[in-house]
Amino acid sequence: FSDFSSAAASTPAAPKPVETPPPGAAPAAPPVKVAAKWTVGDASYQAVHLTEASGTGALDNGAATFKMDKGKFAEGAITADASYDMARIDPRYSWKAGLTDASLGKLAALASPDMATKASGTATFSSQGSGEALGDAMKRHLDGRADFSLKNGELHALPFLDKLSETTGNDSFKNLKFFEIAGGADIAKGQGKLDNVHMTGPENKITVD
Asked: What global pTM score does this model have?
């Protein structure tokens, strides 16, 4: 004879339901922690290339960060840093980015390929800021600053230049050569305001108040 023993089968425990935060409470941070390094050898859009780029990314306790420590975009040096904290009643985000001595013609080609032949010179841009909330509420919490400088180039065959030439009676605006076009904008509570926008060239000097 053989002896057999039996035991009661165990029943798997039911999964715990996902807890929904009460109204007015911050959402729970996703139970995920990620840290990564990334590189881009060569990526392009409209024949404009991002090359030699590298940086890091992370997600921890509901806060995501992205950093581009170095890279070349449209032949200029590019850096970027951004964060997004989602485990809050109103998500919080910030950014800082810069592009130095890029080809203005290549940047213009992002809007339309034929624009590459209508703009020349170098372009430098910088921007930083922060905000909270999304949708319409974002407008009340967005603050930042942006600056730009275009140097030693020319703009031509553009409708707004033809209109400017017609309005002012100055034919030199049709082919606008410049030493520098520069300026900036402050953003406070979602409202932007231009400041110190000016242009200097061999034939024209313009200041926008």
From this structure: 0.81
